[in-house]
Amino acid sequence: MKKAYFIVNPKSGHKNYLQVKNTIDRYLKNVGSGSVVRIWEEKDQLDSLISEAKSGNFEVVFAVGGDGTVHCVGKHFIGTDICLGIIPNGSGDGIARHFHIPKDTKKALELLEKGHIQRIDTGLLNDIPFIGFMGTGIDAKVAYMFSNLSHRGFVPYVKLALSEYFKKRTERYVITIEGKDSFEIQPQILSVANTSQFGNGAYFSPGSSALDGTLQLCKLDLVSSLKLPVAIYRIFNATCHKLDEYGRWDFREVWIERSGEDYGHVDGEAVRTGKKFCVKVQTKSLNLLVPRLGLSI
Fold it and tell me: Residue 97's domain spans which residues?
């Protein structure tokens, strides 16, 4: 039984954090592991929680929340030997879904005894690390607006995404992959994938792996209103790569110069990219606790 430290975000998902915490407490009481559970109550409290986790000889540090929580906690353990665990309790849980980490809290906790530690790749936007996705365009704007909602979940996210889609905005980008010849694109969505999906079963880079030493640059041009139902179906059916408006490139390092505002996101957390930015892979940089079977590779 691994000794674990849990950081519970009370603002994640449907704010049922006390129910989730009680499940964790009951599980730990039964197994007697010497683990610790902390609630991340204030934004500026995280640094002290991370410091306590790093100094306490814990084998696994759990992020209890959604992709944003996984990002905020997990980035501190990139390049270390400490393992990141995930108790999914967010709106989309794309990272947990990619690695087949159970949504059920008790089953996710059982990875402490039955799980496998996998060294995975991460990404780096300028000097900002990410685990699943970074992006610009619609997904970045939606991430910014979604973070300010009092009521979060799948339906509010879809409403925001559709409202941005119907504004029909695109942006010009100059792309330079691996320092080779540049090319220009003008999509509505531009994302970099380390894992396969945004969350809630919405796949934007089907087949992406966090184990292969590469990232994927994914774009979706403006889709006509008539074709939108087909596009949505294909995104949720993991076949978006069959859309004419879709494109994807594998890379280890890419430079991107953009024409519009510099809104971006990393794992759903709003950031500013700058007008010209670099994204690159950090190979085998993070230990992640995952199920022994069903790895997305």
Answer: 4-120+286-290
167/65 same-domain check: no
Co-location of 219 and 265 in the same domain: yes
In the block, tokens 């184990």 appear at: 211
Crossing angle (nearest 10°) for helices 46-55 and 67-74: 60
- Within a domain: residue 256? yes
295 belongs to a structural domain:
no
pLDDT digits (tens, 9 = 90+) for 207-246: 999 999 999 999 999 999 999 999 999 999 999 999 999 9
Q: Which helix (H) or strand (E) holds 121?
A: strand 116-125
Quick one: pLDDT at residue 297? Answer: 39
Q: How far apart are CA 232 and CA 234, in angstroms?
A: 5
What does the alpha-carbon distance between residue 99 and residue 114 come to, in Å, rounded to a whole number?
Answer: 15
